[in-house]
Write a structure and sequence with these properties.
heterodimer; A: 70 residues; alpha+beta; 31% helix; B: 226 residues; alpha/beta; 9-stranded mixed β-sheet; two-stranded antiparallel ribbon; 26% strand
Chain lengths: 70, 226
Amino acid sequence: MKVKVIIMPREGLLDPEARAIRELLKQSGLEVYSLRVGKIVELDLRDPSEARLIAEKFLVNPLVEEFLIE
Amino acid sequence: MRFGICSFPGSNCDYDTLYVLRDLLKQDARIVDINSPKLSDFDCIIVPGGFSFGDYLRAGLIASRTSLGQEIYNFASRGKPVIGICNGFQILTELKLLPGALLKNDPFRFVCKAVNLRVEHTNSRFTKRYRDKEVIKMPIAHSQGRYFVDEKNLQEMKSRSLILFRYCGPQGEIDSSFNPNGSIENIAGIMNKEGNVFGLMPHPERASEDILSFRDGLMLWHSIIS
């Protein structure tokens, strides 16, 4: 079964990469209210409940990131 | 002293560190290969700079989960000294041997230049040969060096004098204009509570010889050796 782990920088934490992309859009005349850059890790596994363990143990640093499983 | 320099795929400061310790300082220094991770023979472990495992997922993460990473953890847990430089610092935070994380620089770009650092405390085994509040110069070269830590750990680090190096101006001014990467409180190097693990973004191994214009890194090595 395929599951996606979506990893985002914690809300409120400075994300200079997102800021740069937002600035690029702005210069191109496309203003957005907010923009965040994260990562998606797609897993194909027999036991989808293992996705959480994998995320917590390897994929996510809870100090600076949050995640959801889809 | 017997130094082990842990080399991961993508480490690129391992041989610079070996050169300084073995050839300049005449220490018994050796590269530790990822395939034979035995650290018990060493007195001090260096985790050198570079881009271990291509910085995949998070800088330092994959190295920290290898058997050599676990050996570094065990070595430090026995109270023996470990120094992480640049990517090595990132690996030590991923191992949770040091608090906090190293995030993308603000502004987001690779910085490669010499910076001034203020030696905040000299009552550590890593800085005892410096003078208190001495301003020294070392190069930095990274894109993920913005040190971040939660408020509780930050306060503890301050009250226990665990912040050893801060980015500063030529007179030792601690100011955001001298902060090359957006690190919280200009932090460039920290030590753990137990006083045996030290992580720093600047490169002392690139500042140990006159021919490279800087030699302020030498006192760091002499602090450990003496």
